[in-house]
Amino acid sequence: MTVNVTVTGAAGQIGYALLFRIASGQLLGPDTPVRLRLLEIPAAVKAAEGTAMELDDSAFPLLEGIDVTDDAKHAFDGTNVALLVGARPRTKGMERGDLLEANGGIFKPQGEAINSGAASDVRVLVVGNPANTNALIARSHAPDVPAERFTAMTRLDHNRAIAQLSKRLDAAVADVKKMTIWGNHSATQYPDVFHAEVRGQNAAQALNDAEWLRDTFIPTVAKRGAAIIEARGASSAASAASAAIDHVHTWIHGTPEGDWTSMAVVSDGSYGVPEGLVSSFPVVCKDGKWEIVQGLDINQFSRERIDASVRELEEERDAVRELGLI
Ligand code: NAX
User: Fold this and answer.
1) Which pLDDT score is estimated for 92?
2) Is the domain of 85 the same as that of 210?
3) Which residue of 59, 98, 115, 254 sits 20 to 30 Å from the alpha carbon of 137, by its own alpha carbon?
4) Rounded to the nearest 5°, which phi and psi values hold at 79?
5) What number is the ipTM of this complex?
6) Containing domain of residue 206, as a range?
7) Is residue 99 situated within a structural domain?
8) Would you call 30 exposed, middle or buried from its count of C-beta atoms within 10 A (0-12, 13-18, 19+)?
9) What is the whole-number distance in angstroms between the Cα of residue 136 and the centre of ligand 1?
10) Domain co-membership, 39 together with 176
11) What is the best residue among 230, 235, 279 to mutate for testing ligand 1's pocket, by most ligand atoms within 8 Å of CB?
12) What domain count does the chain have?
């Protein structure tokens, strides 16, 4: 059956890297036809139409149609997978409150449109920053959609952590399992290797280097976005698109046996993360559903870092609450 996929911010740089991979079958698999809805602001509709022309020109056998629109209601009507990439970036001199307010103006109506028009199996991934709190805003305006269908992306951080660890241990990426990102997709995020495994061995033991972990690994992963901007002169785009593909593909098709992934999901209170916050956890996916991995021992080092990132999420939640956005 054809799956309707909505991509917001379709004319942006992540959109440009993402759409061709969706259309080629990498999001949903090689047997699933897809129909795309591209949502943009009016000023960028023409650019999105240009991307749609290129999608046509690629003659993807799985691509059944493309709609470009600036109307959220139309964009989310009947959608099965919604990738919310478009967001208001922080500009010079902008306070956090202004940023949250501007994004509330985007994610509130999008949540409402998803609530009223999306398909009953809709799955939502928020990529646009501040991703966790934007997901919280959208979710709180979609009361008829089960809360677990709203997620935010920390898969890029997860993939970055795997890449850094595998390089350090001279291992293949495929040898690294059970990596975890906790908390917010921001500089406070906590990439946790204490439960990770490399070639079947505990990663923290294999590293045996607390200093590298604290002073190099964690800041490198958390500040990788800034390092990419510094090097490329533009923010991560293809890697972010790749992570978005991974996130949805894993959610639908499942995590491999003996492994898990990281997703920012609505907390049920696990690991002391207040209920309702959209925070990153280790999750396993099966039959199209995610579940937080339970029962992990959290050492003091990890506890402090998880708490710090969760505190930031609470502050963001309180700020959007004060602004009347949730
Ligand atoms: P771009 O500025 O290239 O594109 C954003 C697009 O969104 C623009 O075309 C803009 O017109 C559109 N847009 C703005 N408001 C909209 C609305 N109300 N409805 C529909 N479209 C709208 O940004 P890009 O590099 O593509 O990044 C997109 C978002 O991803 C940013 O918020 C960015 O911060 C975030 N990221 C999140 C990451 C994550 O791991 N969660 C990593 C990568 C990226 O930084």
Assistant:
1) 84
2) no
3) 254
4) -75, 140
5) 0.99
6) 155-315
7) yes
8) exposed
9) 17
10) no
11) 235
12) 2
- CATH classification at residue 28: 3.40.50.720
Q: Are residues 143 and 7 in the same domain?
A: yes
pLDDT 10s digits, 167-203: 999 999 999 999 999 999 999 999 999 999 999 999 9
Q: How many residues does the chain have?
A: 326
- For the record, the structure tokens of 221 come out as 């992963």
Whether pLDDT at 49 is above 90? yes
Q: Residues at the annotated binding site?
A: 9-15, 90, 96, 103, 110, 127-129, 160
pLDDT tens, residue by residue, 200-244: 999 999 999 999 999 999 999 999 999 999 999 999 999 999 999
Structure tokens at 106: 């985007």
Query: How does residue 11 score in pLDDT terms, banded at 50, 70 and 90?
Result: very high
Q: What is the pLDDT of residues 273-313, one digit of tens each?
A: 999 999 999 999 999 999 999 999 999 999 999 999 999 99
For ligand 1, say whether the CB of 128 is within 6 Å of any of its atoms: yes
Q: Tell me the CA–centroid distance for residue 216 and ligand 1, in Å.
A: 28
CA 12 / ligand 1 centre spacing (Å): 6
| 161/308 Cα distance (integer angstroms) | 19
Look up the CATH number of the domain holding residue 272.
3.90.110.10
- DSSP alpha helix (H) spans, 214-324: 218-222, 224-232, 238-253, 300-322
| One domain, residues 273 and 200 | yes
Q: Which of 141, 158, 185, 195 is catalytic?
A: 185
Band of residue 137 on the pLDDT scale cut at 50, 70, 90: very high
The answer to whether residues 137 and 182 belong to one domain is: no
pLDDT confidence of residue 91? 86
Q: Is 185 a catalytic residue?
A: yes
